[in-house]
Automatic annotation (TrEMBL):
PANTHER family: METHYLTETRAHYDROFOLATE:HOMOCYSTEINE METHYLTRANSFERASE RELATED, UROPORPHYRINOGEN DECARBOXYLASE. This is Uroporphyrinogen decarboxylase. Keywords: Cytoplasm, Decarboxylase, Heme biosynthesis, Lyase, Porphyrin biosynthesis. Residues 117-133 form the Uroporphyrinogen decarboxylase (URO-D) domain. The gene is UROD. It comes from Homo sapiens (Human). Homodimer.
Length: 332
């Protein structure tokens, strides 16, 4: 996650020329940023360079990326009637043609070397940004909506689901070979709120995307759900219609496997900060992680994204250790 990111000097160089969302709207720039980590590391998949907040933008909201602060919505959703400002969710896919062009261009340049993963933010996570107006440590404004305006919250979450489904299907049509849905703010909801306001829409996205792909005569693609800090919902997520459940680093691999059963693939979950350790210790941590997960239905990954101050050499040590210990596991 964030394999194309500020930890790479070439990423910083490419990104210096234009603002963040202008970069997202340039298929050529997105393709270049997607391919940069693959030139450095023998990764097993590419993740298209984009951002989850292109969806609120396509719904008509202004979003800027403020250096040092992160995303900012100058006019967040404050009242129920603000939902009337949003565009029809059916037009969202047509607004995001630049993402589809980036995916097609990247698939062509990859020439079958590794598969390409597309992604989007899940409805609750997108709602938090649209209501809070940016990041938040508490999500108090978004959660206030859930308690004080439950009907309007469901209306907004439905609008977002209706926007996400054609967007994700469009990514597959453009060439994405797997899809990941990020519920980055799951941890701000306890089990009750999660089951009421997040899980139904997570399920619906998978169900509708698969149905639409079938209707269009397209082969299904694996879908990954990553609900950060959503350890309380692993059993439910395993039955939500996704082939893969992503884990953050706070979950013990063996406990996760007990929760999800044997038919779901797990992805994760090394603490990203482990990459601050020595290369030798990274190797030991990776070996422990792979031993804990075992060789079946497992994708090695970090438990969250890479941070800007991480040493690319240590990222390389992580990738190499995964490949080395994978080979040993399979031999045994």
């Amino acid at each position: 996650m964030r394999q194309a990111g500020r930890y790479l000097p070439e990423f910083r160089e490419t990104r210096a020329a234009q603002d963040f969302f202008s970069t997202c709207r340039s298929p050529e720039a997105c393709c270049e940023l997607t391919l940069q980590p693959l030139r450095r590391f023998p990764l097993d998949a590419a993740i298209i360079f984009s951002d989850i907040l292109v969806v609120p933008q396509a719904l008509g909201m202004e979003v800027t990326m403020v250096p040092g602060k992160g995303p900012s919505f100058p006019e967040p959703l404050r009242e129920e009637q603000d939902l009337e400002r949003l565009r029809d969710p059916e037009v969202v896919a047509s607004e995001l043609g630049y993402v589809f062009q980036a995916i097609t261009l990247t698939r062509q340049r990859l020439a079958g070397r590794v598969p390409l993963i597309g992604f989007a933010g899940a409805p609750w996570t997108l709602m938090t940004y649209m209501v809070e107006g940016g990041g938040s440590s508490t999500m108090a404004q978004a959660k206030r909506w859930l308690y004080q305006r439950p009907q309007a919250s469901h209306q907004l979450l439905r609008i977002l689901t209706d926007a996400l489904v054609p967007y994700l299907v469009g990514q597959v049509v453009a060439g994405a070979q797997a899809l990941q849905l990020f519920e980055s703010h799951a941890g701000h909801l306890g089990p009750q709120l999660f089951n009421k306001f997040a899980l139904p829409y997570i399920r619906d996205v998978a169900k509708q995307v698969k149905a639409r792909l079938r209707e269009a005569g397209l082969a299904p693609v694996p879908m990954i759900i990553f609900a950060k800090d959503g350890h309380f919902a692993l059993e439910e997520l395993a039955q939500a219609g996704y082939e893969v459940v992503g884990l953050d680093w706070t979950v013990a691999p063996k406990k996760a496997r007990e929760c999800v059963g044997k038919t779901v693939t797990l992805q994760g979950n090394l603490d990203p900060c482990a990459l601050y350790a020595s290369e030798e210790e990274i190797g030991q941590l990776v070996k422990q992680m792979l031993d804990d997960f075992g060789p079946h239905r497992y994708i090695a990954n970090l438990g969250h994204g890479l941070y800007p101050d991480m040493d690319p050499e240590h990222v390389g040590a992580f990738v190499d250790a995964v490949h080395k210990h994978s080979r040993l596991l399979r031999q045994n």
